[in-house]
Write the structure tokens for this entry.
Amino acid sequence: MCGIAGEISFNGRRASRESVVGMMEAMTSRGPDGRGIWEGGWVALGHRRLSIIDLSPTGAQPMVDEGDIAVTFNGCIYNYKELRRELEPEFTFHTDSDTEVILKAYRKWGQDFVHHLTGMFAVAIADPQREEVLLVRDRLGIKPLYVTHTPGHMRFASTLPALLASGGVDTTVDDVALHHYLSWHSIVPAPRTILRGVKKLPAATIRTVRPDGTWHDREYWKPTYTRKEKYAAWSAQDWQDAVTEALRTAVRRRMVADVPVGVLLSGGLDSSLLVALLTEEGQHGLSTFSVGFDGAGGDSGNEFIYSDRIADTFGTRHERLHVSTSDFLPAIPAAVASMSEPMASHDVTAFHLLSESVSQHLKVVQCGQGADEVFAGYAYHQPLAGVPRTAALDTFAAAFVDHSNHQLAGVLEPEWWAGKDVSREALAAHLAGPGADTALDAVLRLDTHLLMIDDPVKRLDNMSMAWGIEARVPFLDQDLVELAAACPPGLKTSQGGKGILKNLGRRLLPKEVVDRPKGYFPVPALTHLEEPFLSIVRDALHAPEAKERGLFRPDFVEELLANPNERRTPVKSNVLWQVALLEMWLQSNGVG
């Protein structure tokens, strides 16, 4: 786990070491244990190290093998020991790292090496013999990779602000991305970002870049959400057994490390299952961590009653972090500064504070993100189970979209309004694609492979890596996701959602944790805005930079400020916070 960066120069130019150094300096928190640079003429690679596997100096990156192939890599290959055993008859290994396994796998299989990897990763490989650079992102986009094009160069980095630090980036707000941001809870899917000059490599993608500046992308993994013949005879119990075993395998895979592994424990079903399964694997004395806040607006600020119950049941070493309102306010600027992109979810600062607390104890944790998207855990999944395939778009949009295109015309200044409904068009295109049998199948595919990557997955990566924490997500194991995609939808939507996981929970967990109403990470101070939080919101929206940028209609802004808690999205988020957070992020990153 780390931060990676690089510059690829075209048509005889030499890559700039200074650009790569600048990007790495902007990612110190992602890799506090060391840094390295490799220069290969038209390519320069950089790496900031967080030591998790092979803690010795031999595991440092960028790493170069005997054929002068160089790699810089962010993430973890969970099956690296098995791959190493497969490769050892053909290659000599000089380290105990998963990085060297990637190099040797590439030498044996070429671009098909990616099909042999189980893990989360963003990889850059420079191959002087083939005269090409590969940029590769894992199947579910757990590890980020941002790219910018400047005259004669392509640069890439693990964070967007690192690219800004390299200079020369077009920082104009992208009007299509802005439409997505305001439509989908601040989600801007790949390849776009909120800035016109920065893109994201999509998940499950290999980009091949050549010295003349040409490049092409190839999607290497795309599970279908259809009923498969090989499962036709399976009963509900067969599916239950298969999902249970796949989840056990996913948890076991994510135990690989040369340092201890803990759990972020919310007290909900998903993280509680991880604790139970890790305990089954012999992880006694497991460290678990929870966070809670002061209440506001009649809402409770914590779910400690449930996380305490799980900690007591499984005998974990449990750390509870209670953050008072007075301590929460000053944490917001640091959380915003740690965002690669603006993220208006109320729990971003909560994850930032929790990660700070965890960093005093551990470097690696498992987390429950992804279970709702993969196993139909959200309320809007329920009506989709009963509508025809053709109704997927209307049913999903009615429950999910924050603002209609018509509403956005009254939110944005005319020059920033995209005009046509680009967000609905994007949803329609994705939902209509082949490879999904039912309306729910189509939406779960959309959730898992488009929206989730730039919501809970990105949030977890950004906030954990701000404190040098590697966060692993068993529910996004590639084999588990493929199995769940083929699973009959009714087994997922039963019992109000995630029925197949709830059945497992009834075997392993206290009843009250399984049967509780679905909870969300409660951060009442940002859901119900009062002073002193209103002041930072007002300051951001009234700042000279905001007025000069002129994204939002002044009457819309003033109406929000006059009635800060009236306008809510369909998922009950505060619209004022969503709007203000965008300006806070732009200003934090010096975007004029």
User: Anything to note?
Assistant: The two ends are 32 Å apart (CA to CA). The CA atoms of residues 262 and 365 lie 4 Å apart. The chain is about 40% helix and 15% strand. The mean pLDDT is 93.
